[in-house]
Amino acid sequence: MASHPSDHEPNRADLHKDPSSVSGMFDQVAAGYDRTNTVLSMGNDRLWRAATTRAVAPRAGQRILDLAAGTGASSVALAGRGAEVVAADFSPGMIAEGRRRHGGIRNLSFVQADATALPFGDDEFDAVTMSFGLRNVNEPKKALSELLRVTKPGGRLVICEFSHPPSKAFNGLYRFYNDRILPVVAKTVSSNADAYDYLNESIRDWPDQRTLSSWIRQAGWADVAYRNLSMGIVALHRATKPQA
Predict the structure, then answer these.
(1) Is the torsion defined by CA of 38, 40, 42, 45 positive or negative?
(2) Are 66 and 129 in contact (CB under 8 A)?
(3) Phi/psi of residue 87, each to 5°?
(4) What is the pTM of this model?
(5) pLDDT tens string 28-72
(6) How far apart are CA 168 and CA 85, in angstroms?
(7) Which string of b and e fits 105-144 if b means at least 16 CB within 10 Å?
(8) Helix axes 209-218, 140-150, angle to 10 degrees
């Protein structure tokens, strides 16, 4: 694996999304990542996580993959419903922090994984989910195909990702916040403010709701639908794997 910058040298990925740069950047912000996200989203991250958990609808006896799980906050919510949850992330720093915080949860395991080459067999999971991670993958269409591969026929996909508010007026306010306010707050609360500059750029560059829906269909998923959360700041995409 490529070496990462030391903790004293802030690492900043760019829109080329080189895997080692993205991984290194998240390694450096792992310890304070959840706290920073709550501050920058003004607490909305908890609402988005709750909506994602409801959409996944985990049940005891099911096996669920939570990809780009970070430190496992979303995975804990899923495991709390009784399902066996695999929290996977490309960043070893995030995985280590997740194990430190949540390693005692019996039905939750942590795995380092590349979204474009998942270390799982075909048809392993009843549901797969990814929150705020697809945007950081250098080949997102390949990741959607990999998620399809590891899902059982009839299984569910839930993608929670930043998107584009359909209201032009609200989108203008949102862009002002991201461009002017968020960088100032990030410098105050984050150990690597440059990482949040990248995240802002990646949100601006990311396709809208309809385009992402088309990518999901092209990967082979069926029953593709989405709904906006927080007036379209975030979109919750859902789909199912066709029956064999």
Answers:
(1) negative
(2) yes
(3) -95, 115
(4) 0.82
(5) 454 445 555 554 566 788 899 999 999 999 999 999 999 999 889
(6) 39
(7) eebbbbeebbbbebebeeebbbbbbbbbbbbbbbebeebb
(8) 50
